[in-house]
Hints:
One of its GO terms (cellular component) is mitochondrial outer membrane. By secondary structure, the chain is of the alpha/beta class. The protein has 5 helices and 6 strands; from the N terminus they run αβαβαβαβαββ.
Amino acid sequence: RREPLALINVKKKNEETGEEELASRLDHCKAKATRHIFLIRHSQYNLDGRADKDRTLTPLGREQAELTGHRLASLGLKFDQIIHSSMTRATETTEIISKHLPGVKKISTDLLREGAPIEPDPPVSHWKPEAVQYYEDGARIEAAFRNFIHRADAKQEEDSYEIFVCHANVIRYIVCRALQFPPEGWLRMSLNNGSITHLVIRPNGRVALRTLGDTGFMPPDKITRT
């Protein structure tokens, strides 16, 4: 719903200079900037924690977050913001990453919390959440996609660089939706802890995937997927 024609009332055009005025209004509604979306999976965390507050990062997970933060800083980009899941492991990963990006504001959201986005196809035997979970989590994760993954606003003059720290299921679903692939295939991708996935959204709405789950900046003995 960010196509210029969807942003204006076509019926309200001047009778005498209709086409010319319409073209001017369409041009005013066209996006001019490119958005760069960096989707970061949280680092390794304590799987034995019963509640979310107990699922804190492991010592290795903290190392991974440091490496990811260093990698993002080394890109030399002017990041606009870090939006992160409100879950403990994502919040802690964000805090460590942000040390390498001083001055970049942080925003917490429940929309990016981990969950079951949609029933995978083909199904898997090792992971079978209750059907109701797909309805509850799926609606929320789809809302996250629609809220965060879109072309730049027409008022945005310069390209933007935004970081989203969240979870594997959320990232995989977003990638499928952004590339217009069947979202049921989300579970066919695998993402390492602390990995970087880079999406580019052009002013015309076209999306390109530059990297998926990159951890090439980590030593092999620091890479995990738990």
